[in-house]
Structure to design on (244 residues):
């Protein structure tokens, strides 16, 4: 795959991730993405990230790297392996994982991009989505930057509308709580105030519908005897009429 183009100067809200506070979050997420990719060692994957983020290292050309382009566009645009908007110029069911690293944290509507993620994921593939945590005290560091943190329920609703099954959603809290050099990952009550959240969800696999076995109708027991007796009576009556 073509290498990712160097970052352009970004003056939009997503430029915050290039600051020291933003880098404090992204450093923790790199390890989380590596764990997702370790689960699909033989399949291609796609990363869609923000300015300032370092994408996973593509192994043997398996990774497609796309970075948000905020240079004067009013809709979602990406640069990197290809320059494109939505819909993504990627084949259906072609990736084992799609990684969204804060791609929608500037407030763009999530539904269309999540629908595209569902489309390009292979059955059983994983969508990993990192976003800002609306309840973290770390939000004071991105206040008045134009960034928009959605609550977890809003993300789940968008995932459901895109076609993902919510019973497979896994939620983690990751990043620092306040100190920029104190990031970690967890799922306990003490982790709810971390700077970011990460939702993982698998694309459902549609199983083949088995053929319905054909059932033959057979009369048994007393019912069979009554039908046989009635048949013999009709046959005897028919023979008597023929002999007259």
């Amino acid at each position: 795959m073509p290498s990712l183009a160097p970052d352009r100067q970004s003056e939009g809200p997503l430029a915050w991730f290039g600051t020291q506070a933003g880098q404090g979050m992204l450093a923790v997420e790199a390890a989380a993405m590596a764990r997702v990719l370790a689960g699909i060692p033989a399949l291609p994957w796609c990363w869609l990230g923000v300015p300032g983020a370092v994408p996973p290292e593509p192994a043997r050309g398996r990774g497609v790297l796309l970075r948000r382009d905020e240079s004067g566009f009013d809709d979602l645009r990406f640069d990197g392996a290809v320059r494109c908007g939505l819909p993504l110029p990627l084949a259906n069911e072609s990736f084992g994982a799609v990684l969204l690293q804060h791609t929608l944290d500037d407030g763009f509507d999530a539904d269309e991009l999540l629908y595209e993620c569902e489309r390009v994921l292979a059955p059983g593939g994983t969508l990993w989505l990192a976003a800002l945590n609306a309840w973290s005290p770390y939000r004071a560091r991105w206040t008045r930057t134009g960034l928009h943190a959605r609550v977890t329920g809003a993300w789940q609703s968008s995932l459901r509308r895109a076609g993902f099954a919510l019973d497979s959603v896994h939620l983690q809290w990751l990043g620092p709580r306040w100190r920029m050099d104190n990031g970690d990952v967890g799922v306990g009550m003490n982790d709810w105030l971390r700077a970011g959240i990460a939702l993982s969800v698998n694309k459902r696999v549609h199983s083949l519908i088995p053929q319905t076995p054909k059932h033959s109708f057979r009369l048994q027991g007393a019912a069979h005897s009554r039908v046989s007796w009635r048949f013999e009576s009709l046959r005897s009556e028919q023979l008597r009429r023929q002999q007259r």
The two ends are 95 Å apart (CA to CA).
